[in-house]
From TrEMBL:
Domain Methyltransferase per the UniProt entry, residue ranges: 87-176
Protein name per UniProt: Methyltransferase domain-containing protein
Coiled-coil ranges (or none): none
InterPro entries cross-referenced by the UniProt entry: Methyltransf_25, SAM-dependent_MTases_sf, tRNA_MeTrfase_Gcd14
UniProt xrefs under PANTHER family: TRNA (ADENINE(58)-N(1))-METHYLTRANSFERASE, TRNA (ADENINE(58)-N(1))-METHYLTRANSFERASE, MITOCHONDRIAL
Biological processes annotated in GO: methylation
Source species taxonomy: Archaea, Methanobacteriati, Methanobacteriota, Stenosarchaea group, Halobacteria
CDD domains in alphabetical order: AdoMet_MTases
Entry keyword set: Methyltransferase, Transferase
GO molecular function: methyltransferase activity
Amino acid sequence: MYLFVRDGREYLLAPGETLESDLGILEVPEDVAPGDTVETHLGEAFEVRDLRGPDLFAHFERTGAPMMPRDIGLVMGHTGACGGDRVLDAGTGTGVLTAYLARAGADVVTYERNPEFAEVARSNVEIAGVPDRVEVRVGDVVDDLDDLGTFDLLTLDTEDAPRIVSRARDLLVSGGYVAAYVPFVEGTRAVVEAAREAGLDEIETYETLQREMDFDARGSRPSTAGVGHTGYLVFARA
């Protein structure tokens, strides 16, 4: 899949597909590559781009509120997720975090309770180009904890996060990380307490806030639009 861009418009298309729009019919060549320019039958040109992480966030089919890029960045930065890591993810949802981790070279086993959500996540992983690095399982990860082996990283976006964190010593290799994304303060405290009781180290909690800046003729100031708060992130290490 590639991104076809013109004047702020973006379309996600695969080689051989056809797009019909007010700019004409765009027939995507089988040998198309990033950097090419492809024209519609009316001569309207589209630039071809490879997909990057933010493009996945924008174009994935959504089954709920996906983790925001800024939160994903903190997970990647605080845990050092990289190629060769084995990751257990709980609460797949749209699959954005899973896709980022897999594109960084990690192998991810991710659990989603809702079968329809899981199927969407599988399609999104295909779009991201990493189906060989991701296994989307349907079910509750808590039911399988005794049989999963060990991982370098646990990423949790589920109400069961405290129960999973309580087993982190069994699930993580020495020095491995837990990263839990939690929407409410009460749940965040429960994760922290579970990490303490499990004897995990380097327990840190952050509220993720971000504001855009506006620059115009009158001056410069933080934007008043958008939502600054998304959630809380708890990190801990085995």
